[in-house]
Amino acid sequence: MTERMGAAVTDTVAMTHRLVLGMALDPLLSPNARAHWAKRHKHGATARETAGWLAREQRPVRPLSGPLAVSVTICWAGKRGRLPDADNALAMCKPALDGLTDAGVWGDDRQIEQLTVRQERLDAVGRAQYPSGCLVIDVEVAP
Fold first, then answer.
1. Which of 52, 103, 112, 135 is deepest in the core (most CB within 10 A)?
2. Where does residue 22 fall: left (phi above 0), alpha (psi -120 to 50 degrees), or beta otherwise?
């Protein structure tokens, strides 16, 4: 605690937790994908389960509580081709975020107050480590 001009000011530090999920996003999960609902559901359930298992290895000891700010970086493995729009990419991440809820990273995804998405391509070293791509999820807990 520091004193400034007669008022007590406390320095607060937000806690950040990073998870790296070595999984590819399924193009069938895009809102623009033309697929039967049953096929989309099956692929969504598979992505949710995969993300849940990958997150269990990296999750915090106790579920994160309080308001959360989540930043998702989608690392695509392909060297060329168009990246999806940010809103479509975020929709493709929904099953993975539900998998984090299932894994116990946070208690409920309603805790997420801010959600941002970024996209980038992996370089040669990144493609060697994550041949199908990865999701980097930074979760910041408000103090």
1. 135
2. beta
